[in-house]
Automatic annotation (TrEMBL):
Protein's membrane topology: Multi-pass membrane protein
Main location as per UniProt: membrane
Membrane-spanning parts: 35-55
Family annotation (InterPro entries): CLS_N (IPR027379)
Superkingdom: Bacteria
Residues in coiled coil: 89-123
Pfam families: PLDc_N (PF13396)
Protein's recorded name: PLD nuclease N-terminal domain-containing protein
Domain Cardiolipin synthase N-terminal: residue ranges: 12-56
Length: 128
């Protein structure tokens, strides 16, 4: 059991640090770009996660008292179902009006063509 723990603990720490690094906003990564931290965590799988947890991320709140991740959480757009979204419903009404206009034009063209065919048939019958 202890032998398994020797391999599982660094693996678990590596996975935790990797996911933590990926979920960290770019402006909270210290000293290096976030992609460099990802490579360090994955290449040096015993030391890399420890370095990331110790020095790779801003852990204290900035001067304003709020972290960027809190700001992102509070200003995230709420998802609205399509049938509750007034903009979506309005766009459907506009599309419906366009479709109705196209249908009326198509029907008028069809009637015109039918009348032309009837006139041609009547004209050929009268000529015979």
């Amino acid at each position: 059991m202890l032998r398994a723990l020797i391999y599982l603990l660094p693996l678990a720490l590596t996975i935790f640090a990797f996911i933590d690094c990926l979920n960290t906003p770019e402006d909270e990564a210290k000293h290096l770009p976030k992609i460099a931290w990802v490579f360090i965590i994955l290449l040096f799988w015993i030391v890399g996660p420890i370095v990331w947890l110790a020095a790779g991320k801003v852990r204290q709140a900035p001067a304003g008292g709020r972290t960027p991740s809190e700001w992102h959480r509070n200003h995230r757009q709420q998802w609205v179902a399509p049938d509750d979204n007034p903009d979506f419903l309005k766009s459907l009404k506009e599309e419906n009006k366009k479709d109705e206009a196209l249908l009326k034009d198509w029907e008028a063209d069809l009637r015109r063509r039918e009348e032309e065919l009837k006139r041609r048939e009547n004209g050929t019958e009268e000529a015979s």
